[in-house]
Amino acid sequence: MKKFLPWIILAVVIIGMYSYVKGINNTAVTLDEDSQEAWGNVQTSYQRRNDLIGNLVKTVKGAADFEKSTLEAVTNARASASQVKIDPSNITPEQLNQFNQAQSGVSSALSRLLVTVERYPELKANENFRMLQNELTSTENQILTARTRFNESVKKYNSHIKIFPNNLFAGMFGFKEKAFFEAVAGAEKPVDVEFDFGN
């Protein structure tokens, strides 16, 4: 029996190591899938906003002799934002920053549109416009929630693959750190909204 004891100990150590490494890998896969699902929810929220913006622009065009440049700015920003594609399995800070900048352009153009609408009481009274404006507000809240949940899922994933000794094996299995959503540069400054009814 004594001559088999070293082999038994070795087998137990190998099985234990295998189980431990398998656990690291499987947990990382699960957390990676969670972050990819969360990213899908972010994209769905932004897609919902893009769809609503299209309807909003059509409603504004139909309801008023509206400033052409304002509508074009919204349409162009929306088209530009839809061109930015990100691979959810390999989100880099650069990709996320590019996505964030494009979406920020949409938000900025949309804000200008809504401020300009203040000059058109008949448009503000339009039921379709009010409904779309409420939907946009709701969608902005959904985007915030989706981005927050994405960051939470990325934090769990990054923590798992960066702690020791997981970090020794995570790189071997091809797991890389993911980027977080961050506020767009200048977002900390208050928005300067001016209602210039004279022009």
Task: Give a brief outline of the structure.
The protein is mainly α. The protein has helices at 5-63, 68-83, 93-117, 121-124, 127-162, 166-170. Helix content is 73%, strand content 0%.
Fold and architecture overview:
- This protein is mostly helical and 199 residues long.
- 73% of the residues lie in helices and 0% in strands.
- Helix 1 runs antiparallel to helix 2, helix 1 packs antiparallel against helix 5 and helix 2 packs antiparallel against helix 3.
- The protein starts with a helix and ends in a 29-residue tail after the last helix.
- The C terminus is likely disordered.
Tell me the radius of gyration: 25 Å
The arrangement of helices and strands along the chain is HHHHHH
Distance between the termini: 97 Å
| Total DSSP helices | 6
Question: Helix amount, in percent?
Answer: over 70%
| Structural class category | mainly alpha
List strands and helices in order, with pairings.
Blueprint: H1 5-63, H2 68-83, H3 93-117, H4 121-124, H5 127-162, H6 166-170
Helix pairs in contact: 1-2, 1-5, 2-3
Attribute tags:
disordered C terminus; single chain; mainly alpha; 199 residues; 6 helices
